[in-house]
């Protein structure tokens, strides 16, 4: 059976050749133009020795060259290895070496890092060139062929390469575009999420191009800049992470202009505080639909869907073709499902589950048990089927023998009028085992002392839950997808 992620773009270029596919810094590229450029670069890859089954890394910013390179590798029958744009050369070299890449495609400000890493591994760095006679058709692929290898952030040790199949990615793009967002060629999606990350790659790029919608790219996100693009490009769908929603809400407070076309916003990547959701929806007169997923799940697994209802503070129901359950988090050997209302580890199965970690059968066996993928996230499902993520299993704080979930504390603190951002961690404590620490960024112009914030939290949380330690920071350490880097935060707060 022929199935390639490349057909996402091919089909839209056939059906809607004259519609705008990508907008970059005001330049508009039609589907016909983008597809011909992809075919041309695929021919260049073939001329440079890339053969079906070869792996090719892509280290590019959020420009039109990213989809050109990404789809060209797939057209040539290769496996694309998107590389984290914030890595240093040694880290990039590890990804290139571990994945066995035949070449790396790079350019712009990331080119020096790519050249240093490629030299260490002994492979070429390629420019995105599209001037060759195009390949006539994409290389045929099977559903279970590996389309992409995405390296997880790796909280301990080296990152692992999650292998995603053509079936994984084409199904996720179709579900996102059709079932979850109802995208049409008239939609305009703002692509400010990093495209090397699964959220930006699958939900923004692949889903938008699957629907023949327009993808507006920006290489660097700022609240005022995104607010301007939302209005100028008449964006209908915004996809972001909580830190982006915070920045947009703050920008909107200083700018009366509002995007008139915005019909829906999507949040993922990290838990969105309900207080922030409410502020954003009031400022922009729209709704936020929160979803949940991981790199290993292509990524979308659950979502607040029109068909099953929306409940703020939850990540909705499983998407079409996917099952979700709550399992005993302490049982590593088997999946013991728990009844609704129980807190346990979120487990998933369906068409979105990855094909395993590259050259790491032990890690794969630990992650996929009895056909279920163990997410490492703690959650609870209510009687109506809505899933709520409680926290990462490894982020659970045990204070004096009591379990404390950081997100519960964060939700309460996020409602303090002086707090812009907050993240809660556990710090080592001789008497209690761990003590609760809140790292806080204050709103611009606001004033509050650590003692004020601790007293406020004590009135609203159980005695074992409120933070005895409050650290005021200028900002929180964030990864490229907007997640708080809690390991770095613990070091900063210790």
From TrEMBL:
GO biological process: fatty acid metabolic process
Family: Belongs to the ATP-dependent AMP-binding enzyme family.
UniProt KW Ligase keyword: yes
All copies of domain AMP-dependent synthetase/ligase, residue ranges: 9-358
Keywords of this entry: Ligase
One Pfam family from the record: AMP-binding_C
Superkingdom in the source lineage: Bacteria
Protein name, UniProt field: Long-chain fatty acid--CoA ligase
Naturally occurring in which organism (per UniProt): Streptomyces coryli
């Amino acid at each position: 059976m022929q199935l390639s992620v490349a057909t996402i773009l091919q089909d839209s270029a056939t059906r809607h050749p004259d519609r705008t596919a990508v907008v970059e810094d005001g330049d508009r590229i039609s589907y016909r133009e983008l597809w011909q450029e992809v075919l041309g670069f695929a021919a260049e890859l073939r001329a440079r020795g890339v053969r079906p089954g070869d792996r090719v890394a892509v280290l590019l910013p959020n420009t039109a060259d990213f989809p050109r390179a990404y789809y060209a590798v797939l057209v040539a029958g290769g496996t694309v290895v998107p590389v984290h744009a914030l890595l240093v050369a040694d880290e990039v070299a590890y990804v290139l070496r571990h994945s066995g890449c035949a070449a790396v495609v790079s350019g712009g400000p990331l080119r020096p890092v790519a050249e240093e890493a490629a030299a260490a591994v002994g492979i070429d760095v390629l420019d995105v060139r599209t001037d060759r006679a195009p390949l006539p058709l994409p290389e045929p692929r099977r559903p279970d062929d590996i389309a992409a290898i995405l390296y997880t952030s790796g909280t301990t040790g080296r990152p692992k390469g999650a292998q995603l199949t053509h079936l994984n990615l084409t199904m996720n793009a179709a579900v996102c575009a059709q079932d979850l967002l109802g995208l049409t060629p008239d939609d305009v999606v703002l692509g400010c999420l990093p495209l090397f990350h699964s959220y930006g790659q699958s939900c923004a790029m692949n889903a938008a191009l699957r629907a023949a919608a327009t993808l507006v790219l920006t290489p660097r996100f700022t609240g005022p800049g995104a607010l301007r693009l939302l209005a100028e490009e008449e964006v209908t769908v915004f996809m972001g992470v909580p830190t982006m929603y915070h920045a947009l809400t703050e920008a909107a407070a200083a700018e009366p202009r509002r995007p008139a076309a915005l019909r829906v916003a999507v949040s993922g990547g990290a838990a969105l505080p309900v207080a922030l959701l409410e502020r954003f929806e009031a400022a922009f007169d729209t709704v936020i639909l929160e979803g949940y997923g991981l790199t290993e799940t292509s990524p979308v697994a659950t979502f607040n869907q029109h068909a099953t209802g929306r409940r703020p503070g939850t990540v909705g129901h499983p998407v079409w073709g996917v099952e979700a359950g709550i399992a005993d988090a302490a049982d590593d050997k088997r999946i013991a499902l728990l009844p609704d209302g129980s807190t346990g580890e979120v487990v998933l199965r369906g068409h979105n589950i990855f094909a395993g970690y590259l050259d790491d059968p032990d890690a794969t066996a630990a992650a996929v048990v009895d056909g279920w993928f163990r997410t490492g996230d703690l959650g609870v499902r209510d009687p109506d089927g809505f899933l709520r993520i409680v926290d990462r299993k490894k982020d659970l704080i045990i204070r004096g023998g009591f379990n404390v979930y950081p997100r519960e504390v964060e939700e309460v603190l996020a409602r303090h009028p002086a707090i812009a951002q907050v993240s809660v961690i556990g710090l080592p404590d001789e008497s209690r085992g761990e003590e609760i620490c809140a790292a806080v960024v204050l709103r611009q112009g606001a004033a509050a002392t650590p003692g004020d914030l601790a007293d406020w939290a004590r009135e609203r949380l159980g005695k074992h839950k409120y933070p005895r330690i409050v650290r005021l920071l200028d900002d929180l350490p964030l990864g490229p997808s907007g997640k708080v880097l809690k390991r770095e935060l613990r070091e900063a707060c210790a």
